[in-house]
């Protein structure tokens, strides 16, 4: 339930879009999900539903995916900053330290995504973009590891955000690879 709510916040509000098997985004989501176990076809469609009838090329789809992923990183950075400001002193010291590490990781991820966008759209270097998006993707896993390593007890506050970011970067990587091999 929380994951569905969070997903709704990363896209434009879902309209009554109808999907057909011939829609470009539907076909690309199906193809990408069939080759990558890190996300589902349904996740992909949910993320790109607002763009379903407007995106007709791989370049456009990579661009939208890049924007959604970067926007998601920005939201995570803002959320962490708010948590540290509003609850920092009262927060478990392990959690506070892990959140500080995650803030740094997601700030780096945002830079890596910006670099990847330049590589794809200015330099047409999908290989380098793939490396940068992969590095951004690692932010979610490394953030998760930070809570485990600190033996933080209980549900940590970024579990859902890390999962969604990881999936968004997986979709982006799949689309960059599709663009590269097109």
Automatic annotation (TrEMBL):
The cross-references to Pfam families, in alphabetical order and at most eight, read: PMEI
Cellular component aspect of the GO annotation: extracellular region
Q: Which residues form the signal peptide?
A: 1-17
UniProt keyword annotation of Nuclease present: no
Q: Which InterPro entries match?
A: Invertase/methylesterase_inhib (IPR035513), Pectinesterase_inhib_dom (IPR006501), Pla_a_1-like (IPR034088)
**Domain Pectinesterase inhibitor stretches:** 20-175
According to the UniProt entry, its GO molecular function terms are: enzyme inhibitor activity
Determine the domain of life of the protein's source. Eukaryota
Alphabetical UniProt keywords: Disulfide bond, Signal
Matching PANTHER family: OS02G0537100 PROTEIN, PECTINESTERASE INHIBITOR 12
The entry's family comment says:
Belongs to the PMEI family.
The name on file for this protein is Pectinesterase inhibitor domain-containing protein
Organism of origin: Linum trigynum
